[in-house]
What we know:
The chain is an alpha+beta fold.
Amino acid sequence: MKLKGTATVEAALIFPLIFLLLMVFLQYALYFLTLEHVQAACNEGIVAGRAQVPDETIRAHIGQILKHSMVTRGADITIQHGHWFMFPTREIRVQGTFSLFFPMEIDVCARGYGLEAEAFCRITDLIWECAGTLQEAGLLQGQWFGGG
């Protein structure tokens, strides 16, 4: 005896599952795309900070970029300044929510030096030159500094 309609029943069970998997894939693909978009905006802010652009201008620019992304519910943009060794640092953090089918948190942080590239290179060259001079004078001893 041949059963009629079994293909319809099987399709009714399989197609919703395939559609669900497609939607989950789409959710995560767009989430990672948005995450990279926000990371690029933060990196632009770090580069702009090296050119001495004010923080409010950077914050406004990142806000404009986020308006055209899939970050919803008003992203929180924070800019913090600090120092590492002798170098000024800047940290830009964006926290928001991505929501296509279900909400997912976005938390992106970009850190960088507040110096222009030329000034950073000059300072690091000066540090290495001082270390070489101290080593030649015999002031740096031990295995970490190439001494005996």
